[in-house]
Amino acid sequence: MNKIRKGDEIIVISGKDKGKHGAVLTISGNYVMVEGINCVKKHCKPNPIKNATGGIVSKLMPLHISNVSLSDSNGRATRVGTKVKNGKKVRFLKTTSAILSA
């Protein structure tokens, strides 16, 4: 069971965006894409076949999963635990003991 899933509210704990909050968009391997975090400027050439104009565009880049942590209701970073409740394995926050939705 993964500790961080798509749609979870996270906080960045290291790197240039340290302290920023956002929701997880995708997870692939050990990398996560978070909305509004780790945006870079990319220079693009115009492509008349694809009807794309050239210029500088903002692009989201992935963050390593070790650089993010789940955020609790107070906005602080927290760890995640698992326990069995009603015969199902559920995730809960270590700081507030709140159960995360499936």
Automatic annotation (TrEMBL):
User: Do you know which Pfam families this protein is assigned to?
Assistant: ribosomal_L24
In this entry, which stretches build a coiled coil? Answer: none
A Gene Ontology biological process noted in the UniProt record is: translation
Q: Which domain of life is it from?
A: Bacteria
* Domain spans labelled KOW: 3-30
Q: Which SMART domains match?
A: KOW
Entry keyword Membrane: no
Q: Which GO terms describe its molecular function?
A: rRNA binding; structural constituent of ribosome
Q: Name one GO cellular component term.
A: ribonucleoprotein complex
Query: Which keywords label this protein?
Result: Ribonucleoprotein, Ribosomal protein, RNA-binding, rRNA-binding
Q: What PANTHER family is this protein classified in?
A: MITOCHONDRIAL RIBOSOMAL PROTEIN L24 (PTHR12903)
HAMAP family hit by this protein = Ribosomal_uL24_B
Could you describe the subunit structure of this protein? Part of the 50S ribosomal subunit.
Q: Which NCBIfam families match?
A: rplX_bact
What family does the entry list? Belongs to the universal ribosomal protein uL24 family.
Described by its record, this protein's role is as follows: One of the proteins that surrounds the polypeptide exit tunnel on the outside of the subunit. One of two assembly initiator proteins, it binds directly to the 5'-end of the 23S rRNA, where it nucleates assembly of the 50S subunit.
- Under what name is this protein listed? Large ribosomal subunit protein uL24
Q: Which organism is it from?
A: Candidatus Vallotiella hemipterorum
Gene symbol here is rplX
